[in-house]
Amino acid sequence: MNIFVLISVMFLIEHFVLLRLYRRSPTLQTISLVVAPLMALVGYLIARAVLKRDPTLGEYFLVIAALELPLALRGYEIKPDAKVWERVLVAGTFGTVSYAAAQLQ
Questions:
Q1: Which residues have C-beta within 8 Å of that of residue 7, sequence separation ≥ 6?
Q2: Do residues 93 and 61 make contact, with C-beta atoms less than 8 angstroms apart?
Q3: What's the first-to-final CA gap in the chain, in angstroms?
Q4: Which residues lie closer than 8 Å to 22 by C-beta, 6 or more apart?
Q5: pLDDT, tens digit (0-9, with 9 covering 90-100), for 35-62
Q6: How far is the C-alpha of 31 from the C-alpha of 60, rounded, in Å?
Q7: pTM
Q8: Is there a contact between 89 and 5 (Cβ–Cβ < 8 Å)?
Q9: 57 in Cβ contact with 96 (< 8 Å)
């Protein structure tokens, strides 16, 4: 698994898709451009430490969803507004896509 690809793909998805899909304050945009790739990396490291192997896509999705849950519960402001389950689903899905792309390397 290529960690550089994981971080790069998540950054690109955050920049070109998620920031256009969900509007945020300028400060929150900058923060999310840093936090999203870091969350993808931390999710991988947590899953790897717990499982003692590379996680499957489903396992990785669950880890990313669990990492997003506290942020979604806090309810940072985005437009259009999204429910907690929508935020968790979107974060898990796009995190998993970046992980799948990194596995292709």
A1: 37, 38, 40, 41
A2: yes
A3: 7
A4: 78, 79, 80, 82
A5: 999 999 999 999 999 999 999 999 999 9
A6: 23
A7: 0.88
A8: no
A9: yes
User: What tokens appear for 34 in the block?
Assistant: 């840093």
Residues 6+ apart with CB under 8 A from 75: 84
Of the candidates 19, 4, 103, the residue with the CA atom closest to the CA atom of residue 60: 103
What count of Cα atoms within 13 Å lies in the side-chain half-sphere of residue 70? 3
Closest CA to 14 of 73, 95, 96: 95
C-alpha torsion sign, points 67, 71, 72, 73? positive
